[in-house]
From TrEMBL:
Entry's localization field: Cytoplasm
Iron is among the record's keywords: no
Function: Catalyzes the phosphorylation of the 3'-hydroxyl group of dephosphocoenzyme A to form coenzyme A.
GO terms for MF: ATP binding; dephospho-CoA kinase activity
Main subcellular localisation: cytoplasm
Entry keyword set: ATP-binding, Coenzyme A biosynthesis, Cytoplasm, Kinase, Nucleotide-binding, Transferase
Gene Ontology BP term (one): coenzyme A biosynthetic process
Protein name: Dephospho-CoA kinase
Family: Belongs to the CoaE family.
Residue ranges that the Swiss-Prot or TrEMBL entry lists as coiled coil: none
Binding locations of ATP: 29-34
Catalytic activity annotation: 3'-dephospho-CoA + ATP = ADP + CoA + H(+)
Amino acid sequence: MTMSADTAAAPPPAVSPAPFAVGLTGGIGCGKSTVADMFAARGATIVDTDQIAHALTGPGGDAMAAIVAEFGAEFAAADGALDRARMRALVFAEPAAKARLEAILHPRIRDAALAAAATATGSYVIYAVPLLFESGSWRARVARVLAVDCPESLQIARVMARNGLPEAQVKAIMATQVPRQLRRELADDIVSNEGDIADLAPQIERLHDLYLAFSKRTTTIPSQRL
Ligand SMILES: Nc1ncnc2c1ncn2[C@@H]1O[C@H](COP(=O)(O)OP(=O)(O)OP(=O)(O)O)[C@@H](O)[C@H]1O
Ligand SMILES: [Mg+2]
């Protein structure tokens, strides 16, 4: 099927469309940040939900008042940032605390991400969302999902090298994320990051051209992998 045959007869949209947006996801250490930088270098606006979450829980962050109200003043460190070690310990001891924290954070992350996207100056928006399939309603908010994919053995090796973590801890984090095969099935597009960094460039180039083309259209994006 060609794009033009599919879209030529579509009526014009009644309202001006939201900017074309891609969700970028992938397991820990697969190369999301590496890939995001490469799209940014080509003119996409990257909205990084990890950075947003960090700012929300930093000194003076917009989530801190609600966190203190919900969990107590002892969860704010002296500088006003979230006491991350204390929160990690609480969530470990009391798993329901995770849902209480996420109920505070997720709507704020979403609102801040959408606000950032609304002022984006790039040719299209990429939301970097590590847990896109695992949490929230990101899938419904983006036109396409791009997964960065690599074998699990490489994830483990990269994160052990980068963070100095023991293998068991990397595997424990991976166990909280969707399995590789399911992520591959759920994504519209895949970047394979099992070779050298240099192997990424042609893949990013192809996808960037595709996303630029989609961003100029006002009609429905086909859901099949292209
Ligand atoms: N193709 C590659 N070859 C060698 N090293 C790589 C490759 N891709 C990424 N790396 C390295 O592996 C590590 C993980 O990559 P990156 O930080 O981009 O992954 P990520 O998916 O953003 O990780 P996280 O989930 O922790 O945010 C980094 O140190 C990065 O430099
Ligand atoms: Mg990253």
